[in-house]
Amino acid sequence: MRTMTASFARLARLVLACTILFAPIIMSGPAHAQEHERQPLVADLSRHLVAITTGFAGTDVLLFGATDEPGDVVLVVRGPNRDEIVRRKVRLGGMIWANGPAVTLHDVPAFYRVAANRPLEEIMSPAARERHQIGDDVLNLRMSGDVAPEDRAEFREALVRLKESRDLYTVGPGEVNMLANRLFRTELHFPANVPTGTYMVEVYLVRDGEVVSAEITPLIISKVGIGADIFQFAHEQSALYGIAAIIIAVFAGWLAGVAFRKK
């Protein structure tokens, strides 16, 4: 019963998207149809806030929409930007591994996902992908550090591999489902380790290799409940948090000693 209710809810959202897309033409009538410019692309999310609680194990958010005419749909989700440090491991004495040269990459999306109804190489030109930074291979990542220019590509690839291993970077063709060449939908998966912050969900309509329309929708991922209160207290009052943690640890150790003391 719950599955049927969810299916009807998703269908209702798709119908609503179509209504929003074609309402200006229908309401105006034939005499005034040319006065209203049809919007090529309409897209929205099933929710705009993801609440992370203590038992958060990941979640899915439905993205749905419609286009005025057939075309390809590309989706990009970018997480909050931050600086990332990537270090190279070096072998010392042939036996011990230690941290070597390091590079700082600036304005790196903490979360990055690309989805499309077909492989990107088949629907977008390289220039268009680079212009809109669609694909982890064309992300504009600024670097700083004492590293030779010819070695910087290696650090970039290492960062992408690390993000992919944590399920934070994904490029998946075929994940956008096209329905009757006008409607589309996809599920956005956010893992349990997803960073908090404001995300930008970008939807592009592509024809003949170029972007003809785009929709950008914000999505907020935030901690809620007692976990959020502790997190905020730890960052805003770090000294008091450290003292409280030490007191709790000492008390817990004393209590365990009393409980298991041999008589």
Layout of secondary structure:
Elements lengths: L1 H27 L12 E5 L3 E4 L6 E9 L4 E7 L2 E12 L3 E14 L2 E5 L3 H4 L2 H7 L9 E3 L7 H14 L3 E5 L3 E3 L3 E8 L6 E11 L2 E14 L2 H11 L1 H22 L4
Parallel strand pairs: 2-13, 7-9
Antiparallel strand pairs: 1-3, 3-11, 4-7, 4-12, 5-6, 6-8, 10-11, 12-13
| Helix content range | 25-40%
Strand content: 35-45%
CATH fold assignment of the largest domain: Immunoglobulin-like
Q: What is the CA-based Rg, rounded?
A: 24 Å
What is the molecular shape?
Answer: flat
Order of helices and strands: HEEEEEEEHHEHEEEEEHH
Q: Output the CATH class name of the largest domain.
A: Mainly Beta
Mean pLDDT: 80
Count of extended strands: 13
Category by helix and strand content = alpha+beta
What's the CATH architecture of the largest domain? Sandwich
Largest sheet at a glance? 6 strands, mixed
The CATH homologous superfamily of the largest domain is called Macroglobulin (MG2) domain
Low-confidence stretches: 1-8, 14-36
Number of helices: 6
Give the strand line-up of the largest sheet. 2-13-12-4-7-9
Number of separate domains: 2
Distance separating the two termini: 59 Å
Keywords:
263 residues; 13 strands; six-stranded mixed β-sheet; Immunoglobulin-like; four-stranded antiparallel β-sheet; 38% strand; alpha+beta; disordered N terminus
Would you mind describing this structure in some detail?
This protein is α+β, with helices and mostly antiparallel strands and 263 residues long. The protein folds into two domains: 39-224, Immunoglobulin-like; 225-258, no CATH class. 32% of the residues lie in helices and 38% in strands. A six-stranded mixed sheet has the order 2-13-12-4-7-9. It has a four-stranded antiparallel sheet with strand order 1-3-11-10, covered by helices on one side. The chain has a three-stranded antiparallel sheet with strand order 5-6-8, covered by helices on one side. A hairpin with a 3-residue loop joins strand 10 (177-179) and strand 11 (183-190). Helix 5 crosses helix 6. The longest helix is centred in the first third of the chain and has 27 residues, at 2-28. The chain is flat, with a radius of gyration of 24 Å. The protein starts with a helix and ends with a helix. The model is unreliable at 1-8 and 14-36 (pLDDT under 50).
